[in-house]
Input
Amino acid sequence: MTIRKLPTVLINQIAAGEVVERPASIVKELIENSIDAGCSKIEIQLDHGGKDLIRVCDNGCGIASEELELAITPHATSKISEEADLSAIASLGFRGEALASIGSISHLSLTSRRKDDVAGTQIEVDGGTSAPPKPIAVSTGTTVEVRRLFFNTPARRKFLKSDGAETTRVRDVVQRLAASHHDVSFVLKSGDRTILDYPQATSKERIMSIFGGELEGELIELNGSIEGMTLWGLVGTPSIARPTSKHIRLHVNGRAIRDSSISHALKEAFRGLIEQKRWPTAAIFLEINPALVDVNVHPQKSEVRFRNRDTVWRLVNKTVASALATKEYIPVYQPSKETKFSHAGGSQAEFGAVSTPSFNVYEARQAVAGIDLPMATPLPTILGSDAVLQVHKCFLVTQDERGLLIIDQHALHERVMFEEFMQRLSSGCLESQRLLVPDAIDADAGQIEALETHESLLDRLGIEASASGPASISVYALPTLLVSRNVDGATFIRELLEKLGDSDFPSSEEEALAEIVDMMSCKAAIKAGDQLSHRELCDLLKKRQEVERSGSCPHGRPTTMRLSIEELEQRFGRR
Ligand code: ADP
Ligand code: MG
Output
């Protein structure tokens, strides 16, 4: 085989393979160019999901007519000029390849006029071949039209999804860019339908309109800084957590990015407030010295590399956790009007439906149609905590100044234990109690290895165990708190080994610790079916007032439901 240098058109088509995957990636590049050009207004038009036409029109600085040909040439950019610029990129684009790549796989026309130019200029590119620029009467700014996408690479056209699916992706891209550029107005049209219309706004207003105004009461503002990095943003209360991480929007220096480690820092801050498999809603904006972020690591620039990843993790985690700590979340039992009328006279069914706690408030909302479960603000004080009744050895019934409280005894005690463990751990190790006779437990090689790998973790937890043979381990000491709650040591260690040996077991020590403490709390907690003395009931209620996040158990399920006094009055015809 002969080695030969590829023709420019082919080089550009290959480059296009990385940058231009679908209409959404073109829209992203074009909007980024418009933003880099300092515009205040961007209009995007799609026909057939962008397959037939993508038009992006801005009122930015424009391009000089003599530079128009250069703009569509690969590796031609006005944004960086020397090596040093690469390490502190402040613009969204910098590689100088977007227009050249797009022009190689479509019919592209680029029309532009600067403020003081007498007329504009237009250049057309057809599958990589350009015609000479010609003058044209246009207003200030730049318009790029991309027609017949992938006409010369039919295999790639086949990968496109339906018009509707492509439009949805474009919409998502526009929203991501609009989120961090609130001072630019955006209009997205598909055919003659307006899909998005964002006027210039404050950052908060912009995020609200992207998330949907109805969430206003469910968003908490974030403000934080560490070592010169700052974070601003909005995070949703636990009640609007979602099954996927799609509603997490991350931005670094105005660039929308994806970053599993930041998403994770965010999710960790919600530990115990939402179920493990759910994700918070959030918009997070980080401002970091550009020299500390490498943006040149991904072909579509949608990932970055931080010089100091741990600091970013801490900033996100701590800012979100402290914002959440300002409130306690407790679901309120509050049927809507319609539900109330249809059940007039017999409220049993409805009450039953809610008191079987659906583990997620958001799902509960959907499941028990018509019943609204908004999150209330600060956890109110229970009145005279000796007025408490245990029902079916499972629930405690008491009151606060707003109504009747129903508490799940296991869920609440689990939270109490969890906070107690965590508090003790924060000031060192858990107190440990030696067993009179060591417990011998069967274990496989993987579990023995896991035990050895996690030795320091187990030390902190007050667990002392080691291999006593090729297939067995001996347990010498357990956390005092577990022993005092009569937890069966052997069962606990067996489950612990299973966890440690699991491939999903977290590798970071803090997370691993939280996971084990989770399990210990569950084991040590009062169970459904345990009869409690009056003293124990009162103690539990007292602790409820003392620990953080007592509105939900460590897995994010509610510990408490409230039936408001108004609701009771209405049901008994007093209102
Ligand atoms: P990059 O954005 O990486 O520089 P592009 O191929 O996207 O590369 O654009 C090439 C050049 O064309 C840019 O550097 C910029 O000078 C100019 N340009 C592109 N789009 C616009 C626009 N909308 N307004 C003003 N200048 C533009
Ligand atoms: Mg660009």
Residues 29, 32-33, 93, 98 surround magnesium ion (ligand 2) (CB under 6 Å).
